[in-house]
Design goal:
Helices cover 57% and strands 9% of the residues. It is mainly α. Strands 1-2 form a two-stranded antiparallel sheet. The longest helix is centred in the middle third of the chain and has 29 residues. The radius of gyration is 18 Å and the shape is rod-shaped.
């Protein structure tokens, strides 16, 4: 696990994979308290990063289209790319 890697530099998939590994380690209950706290803190940063990436993707998908008069006319579908 790349614990020293900056969370902001991770892709969504990388962050989610690391978060799943951390959850697995914490669920075993085998970690010492200090290490468990460090893992929890790292996991929380990863969770926030993943949530922000999902929110950004949702905003792109649900972009509101405005008409010539500036009023909403519908939503724009997500355009990959």
């Amino acid at each position: 696990m790349a614990e020293e890697q900056d969370v902001a530099a991770l892709s969504f998939e990388q962050a989610l994979k690391e978060l799943e590994q951390i959850v697995g380690r914490l669920e075993t209950g085998d970690e010492e308290l200090d290490k468990a706290i460090q893992l929890y803190e790292r996991g929380d940063k990863l969770r926030q990063h993943c949530a922000a990436r999902l929110d950004a993707a949702q905003e792109r998908i649900e972009a509101i289209r405005l008409g010539a008069d500036g009023r909403p006319t519908g939503t724009t579908n997500f355009a990959a790319g």
